Amino acid sequence: MTVAIIDYGSGNLRSAAKAFERSIRESGRSDPVRVTNSAEEAAAADRIVLPGVGAFADCRSGLDSLDGMVEALEEAIIIRGKPFLGICVGMQLMATRGLEHGEHPGFGWIEGDVTPIDMRSPAERNGSTLKIPHMGWNDIVLDRADHPVFAGLQDGSHAYFVHSFHMVCRRPEDQLAHVEYGGPVVAAVGRDNIVGTQFHPEKSQAVGLQIIGNFLSWQP
Residue 177, class by beta-carbon neighbours within 10 Å (0-12 exposed, 13-18 middle, 19+ buried)? Predict the structure, then answer.
């Protein structure tokens, strides 16, 4: 099994690769993890990971700049059904569109928009004083506890977040998990062979390694 982590200039690639390599090693396997900007290598991989940090439009532009990459991802993931994990903005790119600094098209794999986290006044948020970006550890609430990528986890599992925008799903069944941050904020989405986390599994210690291990063994 080959894992491709897509390098388009907008991801925490070293940390992601090390986390996947550790999970593979601890499972007793020796599957290769390849950080790549090649559409051909991405298409040939058995599992595909798309990290992402920064602005939605910049990440989309970075992917578009790689010859044939967006088409290769569509072919491998949507048509051929290979397991896919999007992380942070890599998850957000699965949406219909992003509304950060204008309107920008996403992949359209998950119906929904990427919008700012609610910045209502503290009084409207029951007196809480929240900061944007949402940064640090938060407790996950599982909306789809039966999803194989979240096997072994439970409500209250801690994950690490850094973001100012989040996805709002048009279909409730596509929301796999959320956190409370002045109201519910989407933490994970998915359908069929695709899954995405707003939090960073590679920074989420034991919880993150559990999710990565589950993803590597997932047979959608």
Answer: buried
pLDDT tens figures, 130-167: 788 898 999 999 999 999 999 999 999 999 999 999 99
Give the whole-angstrom CA distance, residue 26 versus residue 29.
Answer: 7
Is 202 tagged catalytic?
Answer: yes
How do residues 181-214 score in pLDDT, each as one tens digit? Answer: 888 999 999 999 999 999 999 999 999 999 999 9
* Domain chopping of the chain, boundaries: 3-217
CATH architecture of 3-217: 3-Layer(aba) Sandwich (3.40)
Active site residue 200: yes
Tell me, yes or no, if 88 is annotated catalytic: yes
Q: What value does the CA radius of gyration of the chain take, rounded to a whole number of Å?
A: 16
From 134, 147, 178, 200, the catalytic residue: 200
pTM beyond cutoff 0.85: yes
- Among residues 88, 100, 134, 178, which one is catalytic? 88
